Structures are given as structure tokens and as C-alpha cells.
Amino acid sequence: MNLTRQDTLAGARIGVSWGLLLLVVVTGCSGRQSAVYGDPRTLLANTDDFGMLLLNAGLRADSLLAEDRLTPEEARRLWLLLSFDSTDGGMQRTGPRTAATYLLAEVALGGQPVSRETLNARLLRFAPLAVLRPDGCLVMVLTGIPVQCAGPVQVQDGTLRAGEFVVGNFYSSQEGGFREDRSVPTLPNSTFHHGVVVTVEPK
What pLDDT is recorded for position 43? Predict the structure, then answer.
């Protein structure tokens, strides 16, 4: 069957119209999905290492801050959110949670806002360190990856301990094994318990 030029143009217009309609429908659906997940997706796309640490520690994406500094008040608020969800995610969050609660307590105790750039730099102190989980497994702080089984955890002299390792202390790889590492300063007026800072009030 032969088509005239007018028929061809009419068909093209119909094709374009259907294409535009389909584009509107798809865009509309996509827009509705973005309305649900848009803010968390934007935050995740723009978050830094400190933000990722908070996520790995158990914070929800909508709890993250977009500001370029962290105030002591916000640090206490985030610490409180972490303490409420202390069992969220299971044992694999122990390492990141330990680093996150330490950094938040450090800001809270310092009494001054701290830039995100400084927080990202402070976070690097934990990269080579490990911490003992309550199940007796030694894991890397930032990743939570297990590196050694230390045995069952028991209360000894008022501390949770597995062999020579203590829950809440930091350890680094030395001479083929892990030894206590004191490169990260002990925070004043704070106590670690299962990787969570119990007291974060300034002096």
C-alpha cells in the first residue's frame, strides 16, 4: 500500500505524540519515586567518609547532616540516636560504631564545632586499628572485618575481656599479632562499654 506524504507526516506526528506521552508517564513515575527516596539518595551521593562511617555504625540516611561542620549539640544528638539503636545490624556494626561514638564524643567533649574535613582526618586514625567485639572476635574498626578469634568474653577485674583483649580498647597489628594501641587518646569523662561511649558530658 502506498502512503502519501500527508499520511507519512500524520503518522510521524502520532508517533511523536505517543513518545511524548510515554516520556511524561515514565518521568512522572520516576518523579514520584524520587519524592520518596530523593533526600536520602541525595545525601548518600554527597556524603563523605564520616557520613559513611555513621551509616555503617547504624544511623539512618535521613539522620545524616549536610552541614560542613559538626556542633557539640549535634554530636550528642547523633550519639543518642546510635545508643538507641545499639543492637541494630548485629555484631558487624561493632567496629564502625566504636569509631563513630568515639568521634562524636570527642566533638561533644571538645565543646567547639568541628569541620567535616577535620572529622574525615580524625577518622583515619582508626584505619589500622582493631577492636574486640562482645562475642570475642577481634575486628577492624572501620570495616568490621574479623581478623582474629580471641575466645569467649568474660568479666575479669571489672572489665569485659577475652584473653589479653579488652572490649572497647584499640589494638594494632605488631610483630605478627595484635597489641594494645594507645595512639588514640583516652577521652576524659567518658567510658566505653561494648563500643559505646556511656558519658559524653564536657568537664
Answer: 63
